[in-house]
């Protein structure tokens, strides 16, 4: 891990404005490194590394889903649970427009557009999670309660 100065992202500004507690970690981002790279660098379980995925529904409306790094999201089940016909991963362009974050650096905190945020309910069984801070190679260690306390989280059970 690099020992550089930590970036001040929209996510960090958001968390500081809420007086939320978090730890910061920097590392050299590798394209397609995913949650496995974070796991290796931090020495934590991939289950505790949370990915932030931006989707759009059949009407082109955006949404975010938070999922354990060692699981995938059943888009069929997510669509069923939120009463949509279909859900697909948003394009990089739409994701950037809605969140202000690049792929590989998307955080649920401080997004440009307030999107509905769905989270796998078992995330809240963990003591600590690791989630993107709003920049590639920038991870935050937080209590999952920070999500519940500062975002309008809707719990789902869509992990496979």
Descriptive notes:
This protein is of the alpha/beta class and 160 residues long. It has five helices and eight strands. The chain has helices spanning 10-17, 34-42, 75-81, 92-99, 144-150, and strands spanning 23-26, 49-57, 62-68, 87-89, 117-120, 129-135, 138-142, 153-156. Strands 1, 2, 3, 4, 5, 6, 7 and 8 form an eight-stranded mixed sheet that branches. The longest helix has 9 residues, at 34-42. The chain is globular, with a radius of gyration of 15 Å. The model has no long low-confidence stretch (mean pLDDT 94).
How would you summarize what this structure contains?
The chain has 160 residues and is α/β, with parallel strands linked by helices.
Give keywords:
160 residues, alpha/beta, YbaK protein, eight-stranded mixed beta sheet, 24% helix
């Amino acid at each position: 891990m690099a020992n550089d100065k930590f970036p001040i992202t929209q996510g960090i500004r958001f968390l500081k404005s809420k007086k939320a507690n978090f730890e910061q970690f920097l590392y050299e981002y590798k394209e397609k490194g995913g949650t496995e790279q974070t796991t290796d660098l931090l020495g934590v379980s991939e289950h505790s590394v949370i990915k932030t995925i931006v989707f759009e529904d059949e009407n082109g409306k955006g949404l975010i889903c938070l999922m354990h790094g060692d699981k995938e999201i059943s888009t069929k089940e997510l669509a069923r649970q939120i009463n949509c016909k279909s859900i697909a991963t948003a394009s990089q362009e739409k994701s950037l427009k809605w969140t202000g974050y690049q792929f590989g650096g998307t955080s649920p905190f401080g997004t440009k557009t307030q999107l509905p945020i769905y989270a796998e309910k078992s995330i809240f069984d963990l003591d600590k999670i690791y989630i993107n801070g709003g920049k590639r190679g920038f991870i935050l260690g937080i209590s999952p309660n920070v999500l519940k306390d500062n975002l309008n989280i809707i719990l789902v059970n869509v992990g496979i």
